[in-house]
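Figure-free illustration: sequence to structure, shown twice.
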Amino acid sequence: MTWEILNILAVSAFAFSGAIVALNERYDIFGTFILGIATPFAGGIIRNIALDVPVVHVWEQGYLFYVAVGTIAIVYFFPKTWVMAWDRWNIYPDAVGLSAFALQGASFAMANDFPLGGVIFAAVLTGVGGGVTRDVLAQRRPMVLHQEIYAVWALLTGLAVGVGAVDIQSFFQTYLLFFLVIIFRVSSFHLGWHLRFRDLYRI
């Protein structure tokens, strides 16, 4: 149940985010659904290819595929004035998707007995892969390449799970980490935290 809820949250959040971006870029209904579906599922596909494990294709995602399609349909038929305004708040569903998918990626690697490096790698690829795919398809600069902290939160999620600091079999610990990553991601955006160090060494 823990992972079913997280998967639903992650897929709906990233599908929502992808659809919002598509509509703001003036995509038609076909383009909106393509971008909305690619965003939640691309990260897992990229992860599986990179880790050389069987790929679960989009059409094999079961009820999660319909969760994505339903979310995109709801967004598409909302009044367009609402949708355009919501692009400014896209950081929030993106943070939910980043956190949930990073956890899902780390859990996937642990279940397949990958070492610490593999757990971290899987968390990062699963967490940021969908957002990068969305931004590339929409011809936007991917968030992972911004100065602000983004992929680091997925990396720390994988590290926490990989070293055993968080027991992914525990409902409480899993959701505590889930919400902490969301809080840190949103805070880093609003407070302007970044990884640029050159300003510290100006003469």
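We now fold a second protein in the same way, so the two outputs can be compared directly.
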Amino acid sequence: MKDHEVKALLQETLEDYQLTKKERNELRDLLDNVRGDEQRRALYRSMAFDAAREALAKADAGQRFQVLDWLEGTVKTLHPTENLPAGGKREGAKSYFSPDDNCVGKITEMFGTARASVDVCVFTITDNRIVDAMERAHRRNVQVRVISDDDKAMDAGSDIDRLERMGIPVRVDRSEHHMHHKFAIFDKSKLLTGSYNWTRSASLHNEENFLITTDRDLLKDFTRMFDKLWRDFS
């Protein structure tokens, strides 16, 4: 593959601001053709940085973080032996269990560090501590969107109406069935998902769990599902 074709390949992988598994494999195939040629690998890395700089100049606030994620993934793919720990590469993930771990504290912390966007898709939301953190993020101009279940939105203590009064966009399923998901996507780069509903009972009494991961394939799948439900419930 000629240098201009490599440049075009890099730009193509950056079009949706995500480096998919298929695209990573294409880059690895490219490396097989230049195995041992460190100068050529350095050139490809320079091309990746050039493409990222061009994309950053045109990207909005949320897309900038996606461009940086793309760049990180691309550079690690171009230099695999420099980034693999002894046990092999593993996407970052951490698990939390309630009531032993401070699950509500972790969720509020993630809202506190969110920079551009948070997409929430949770069956029921009644824990005011989390809603307070959502409000603070909203006031910092973080773009927060919420999907929830229509039946649970009518329960005593539900904070769905409060979120709408804040000006946070909210959509519910409006069907006889339940919107039973419990996940949230922070800055398009971190996924929180598990059995944990955002309630006081989940925090204090129930045996619950969630995990937080930066796995790009999972992020892509959950983002696709959130966007589908957002359209369906419009």
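Summary for the second example: The two ends are 46 Å apart (CA to CA).
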